[in-house]
Amino acid sequence: MTTWIDFKELRARLDFETVLKHYGVEVKRKGKQHHGYCPLPNHNGKKNSPSFSANLEKGIFQCFGCGAKGNALEFAAMMEKVDPKDGAALREVALALQKRFCPELGNGLKPKAAQISQPKSETVKKLPTVVNAPLDFELKGLDAKHPYLLNRGFTQETIDHFGLGFCSRGMLKDRVAIPLHDHDGKLVGYAGRVVDDSTITEDNPRYRFPGERERDGTIFEFRKTLFLYNGFRINAPVDDLIVVEGFTSVWWLFQNDLPNTVSTMGADCSERQAELIVSLVKPGGIVWIMPDADKAGERHAQTLLTLVSQHRLIRWLKLSEGKQPTDLSIEQLKMSFIN
Ligand SMILES: [Zn+2]
Fold it and tell me: What is the pTM of this model?
């Protein structure tokens, strides 16, 4: 598993003066500015003119001699003779800087995510919390031959592959139960999809996910933002990974010979999910995103572009207005991914 780098946070925390000194630059301060000879190995202007200036507060620099400019991270890259536009190489430099200067960022969690893990109410504050604990049971008696899935064109092979089935009891009564596995392949819960859309209300949403529960003095929390649906089935990084919003799109693409498909289980993509997406694609590989063609899908794509594009090549397959991946025939899907 690769260490996640939050470039924005790293850039915000890196102290440029420290970085400059690390590379042996003798910092001559004039207020917030440093002026001196250009230390960059690729500098090709006059060597003995003070063409290099850095704004220590803003963490940016430029050289009037060689024309180089950028932020502290890009400066470090240039000092390491790395092209800052080479995402994978820049990441290596960023990782080294993070380890040296901001080791507190290396835990893979943003402060924001840490706050969410705090129990909300006073009464539960003292109880230990476990997130996405493996289930110690499996739902039995699911009806894998229920017409809901078959009528939507899913084959018995697809239904069995994903372990789907209609549930007639308990929390998922009158829903199709969808087993959810974390990144290690452990069953951590079930989602349930309503089979009769006319019953959908605020209290009876289309999809139901596991809630928070307390047992033997421990709080059990479920968070879908910490893994990708179908992610655990991809055992090694692939050349091409398809990312969709929903479960049904994963099933449909699997059935049409596109098994390397994962879903974020909704229009949001968390940083952890983005990290997992990157880890599932070889450097030089492509992340193909195919969101539903609506407002939420647009947001989904924008989030992915922001989080993933600095690590991997990403291509957005735009569907026509109102369409979703399950509307595409096998021929249309093949056409989409060939070019
Ligand atoms: Zn220069």
Answer: 0.64
